[in-house]
Amino acid sequence: MGATPERREVTELEALKALAHPRRQRILRHLEVEGPATSATLARSLGLNTGATSYHLRELARHGFVEDFDDHEAHGRERWWRAVRRDLRFPPRGEQSAEVRPVVDEMTRLVFAADLQDFLDANTAPEAEDETDMPYSRGIIHVTPAELGEFFEEYIALLNRYKRTGPLPDGARAVQTRLFTYRSPVTGAGTNLPGTDEPGAAES
């Protein structure tokens, strides 16, 4: 299984702006899912011109999100790019400045919109009829902020256990995984749970 990627806190406004761009998000997504590519192959796959992809790749590289690498034996003189494997973390909303907040909001909107479209496309594709092992789950938990932080770190650790960087075993395929949490509008802090007399008690 894969090693734990290096953690990076992305707080610089210019780096966040580099991510809050629809074409760059598409390029990053392609490199993360499909693997290394040249500017030309990215342009063909994404319906862009090579000049645009080259520019966006350089901007992403300038902020450390992608990198070019030389493998002349395998690729000749072509310039290949790959996503930099990092555990990216972004500033909590309460710590975002007035300049940073709209940039993070736009980046989040782009990512979630693309995730939703990918999910719908994958589940309505003809081959989806043969898929029986793509689980889906949603639920509500009652936790303190500290417990939610622990929950998140445990999820990241579990995810990293299944990330591979070497040869893939037979039958392995790329599977998108997502976790997002948000405060439930139904039950707030200090509210009794159904069937209990005390706040925070577990429901039987």
UniProtKB/TrEMBL annotation:
Organism encoding this protein: Embleya hyalina
Gene Ontology MF terms: DNA binding; DNA-binding transcription factor activity
Name of this protein: Transcriptional regulator
Domain of life of the organism encoding this protein: Bacteria
InterPro entries hit by this protein: ArsR-like_HTH, HTH_ArsR_DNA-bd_dom, HTH_MetalResp_TranReg, WH-like_DNA-bd_sf, WH_DNA-bd_sf
Pfam families from the UniProt entry: HTH_20
Upper lineage: Bacteria, Bacillati, Actinomycetota, Actinomycetes, Kitasatosporales
Keywords of this entry: DNA-binding, Transcription, Transcription regulation
Domain called HTH arsR-type: residue spans: 14-95
